[in-house]
Amino acid sequence: MTEPTPHRPVLRLTRRGRLVCSGLVLLVVIALVLLLVSLVRGAGTPPEQQQASTAAESAAPEHDGTPADSDEGGTTSAEDDAPAAEPTGEGTPGEEATPTDDAAERTPEAESPEAGGDVEMVRSGTVGAGTWTVAAAGDAPTEGVLRPYAVRVEDGIDVDAEEAAEEIAAVLADERGWQGPADVVFHRVADPAEAEFTISIGSPPTVDELCLPAKTGGVWSCRIGPEVALNSDRWLHATPTYDDLAEYRAYMINHEVGHFLGHGHASCPAEGAPAPVMLQQSIDLQGCTPNAWPAGEEG
């Protein structure tokens, strides 16, 4: 006689159990979809880009400046609208910065020796008011190719705007200056908006800001695009390479305006020769003798 098959208990899920199982299945499906999307994206990204992306997360990029020109050592360059900027003997060498010339010329060219290197510069600690006094217009020339410019002086730096403007005008009009070689006539206007370039005399912190991206370090001057920024410490105290303050100011002006006119830096041609005005004389004469003028004593 056959024994009856024992009754097997049937597993029945409660409503709660069914909900839990459905939730687990849904989570697994979502995880698989996310994994698939991640793999597809990774496969489409070049290895170089993946590496760059990782590097960008671990290190912040440094500020890239446009070249500037400066005769005092500026560190950057900026193109004239980027003309080159040159520190007028005041900055950290960059693209073409010449101390006491144009630290940045918005045409990449800025150079200014950091902290002046071994050369001891006067650092007054002056901080200007951040406001400006614009000098009055000069007499308009009757002939020649006019190059209008403006002069402004930061308030609170012990430099008189009108006196500085007259000194600058005399330098620009000097027969040893750029008017002959460049075949132009400079005319001072009262509105910077009407000028091709502006010569600004400001305190060290202000000039540092004007010269960016050139690094003028509170010491140098520069030229950035249409802005010729002259450090007030250099205007009032020059650098150790010059004994004559008036001659040094003439050099600052001619060097930076030279950058505006498109001239780059130069080197000393021979031991004992007059230094080219586009040499960064605020930093080092390279064996030459100081010379503030485009046209030397011998023409």
Helix-strand blueprint:
Blueprint lengths: L14 H30 L2 H12 L10 E3 L3 E4 L17 E3 L8 E5 L20 E3 L11 E9 L6 H13 L5 H4 L2 E4 L8 E6 L1 H8 L10 E3 L2 E5 H6 L7 H16 L39
Parallel strand pairs: 1-3, 6-7, 6-8, 8-10
Antiparallel strand pairs: 2-4, 5-6, 9-10
Approximate shape: elongated
**Spatial separation of the terminal alpha carbons:** 137 Å
Topology order in helix (H) and strand (E) letters:
HHEEEEEEHHEEHEEHH
How would you name the oligomeric state of the polypeptide chains in this document?
A: single chain
Rg over alpha carbons: 33 Å
Q: What value does the average pLDDT take? A: 75
Q: What kind of sheet is the major sheet?
A: 6 strands, mixed
% residues in beta strands: 15-25%
Helical residue percent band: 25-40%
**Computed structural class:** alpha/beta
Q: What is this structure, in a nutshell?
A:
30% of the residues lie in helices and 15% in strands. With 299 residues, it is an alpha/beta fold. InterPro entries: DUF3152 (IPR022603), MetalloPept_cat_dom_sf (IPR024079).
Properties at a glance:
MetalloPept_cat_dom_sf, metallopeptidase activity, 6-stranded mixed sheet, 30% helix, two-stranded parallel ribbon, 299 residues, elongated, DUF3152 domain-containing protein, alpha/beta
Model description:
- The protein is of the alpha/beta class and 299 residues long.
- Strands 5, 6, 7, 8, 9 and 10 form a six-stranded mixed beta sheet that branches. Strands 1-3 form a two-stranded parallel ribbon.
- The protein is built from seven helices and ten strands.
- It has a domain of 178 residues.
- One of its GO terms (molecular function) is metallopeptidase activity.
- This is DUF3152 domain-containing protein.
- It comes from Brachybacterium paraconglomeratum.
